[in-house]
Amino acid sequence: MGENGSFWLPEAASTIAPEVDALFYFVYWTSILFFVGVVGFLIYFAVKYRRKDHSFVPPAFHENKWIETASIVIPTILVLIVFTWGFKVFVKMYAAPPDAYEITVRGKQWYWEYEYDNGVVVPNEVHVPIGRPIKLNMSATDVLHSYFIPEFRVKHDVLPNRYTSLWFQVDEAGEYQVYCTEYCGTSHSAMLGKLIAEPEAEFQRWLSDQNADRPPEELGEILVASYNCAACHSVDGSRGVGPTFQGLFGSERQFEDGTTVVADENYLRESILMPAAKIVETYPPAMPPSYSSLSARELDGLIAYIKTLQ
Length: 310
Description:
Strand content: 15-25%
CATH class of the largest domain: Mainly Beta
Order of helices and strands: HHEEEEEEEEEEHHEEHH
CATH superfamily of the largest domain: Cupredoxins -  blue copper proteins
């Protein structure tokens, strides 16, 4: 929760967030007002009209037209206010401006992949320029995900075989957490990303740097961190959901079908692209086939990095 947040909501960081918050607090305080009023009248009537003794017979009362009319008209007015207000905010939230900067988002088990219009593809950490509307065109390659940035008050399901979208605009630089809010498998809780909003010049510099050549080992180390591989594979020899990367290259691997193989480059490549092809003994077949879209350069980088972990 940001320092400007409240008990209920984190800091409002996008241009649409104040409008969402205003609607939320209207419903919240209206509900509090009616709750206090109903409970107050309940206590008042319980005390005032309680039976004094067992022989007391209360007089008959007839309905009050004003009370009946108010109990229909007031809730109807409130529902119409919330519906109209909410519909206007909804339309504004999901109708992106025509000049919005578009980024493609792919939800995969268990990371977010972003592709920019110049072909740059990055996992989990997305950079956006401040002061410009940003539209995310989203789809999933495997199961249902949901894209959520609490400070922006934007959330939308990310579905296989169809596109969804959301947009936002941030006017101040900062870092924000991206969550998947739809249970998507074993490592759902680790499907975390980061959004970095920065001035246009810094954003363009970052975008240009993504095309810079890096040594394969350095690229692989960056990818292991970006794709959150440590959620299942350690680099210090400790046991995880999947085998550790330390000492993996060149070691003999024994599989659940009784066969063995030496972990060379071809084995590592196959394990990344087709993780169900060979299941290491005592480990579950938990790794999804989400990494088949990695480029040849990225594969070479991952393999080169794993080879250094001896």
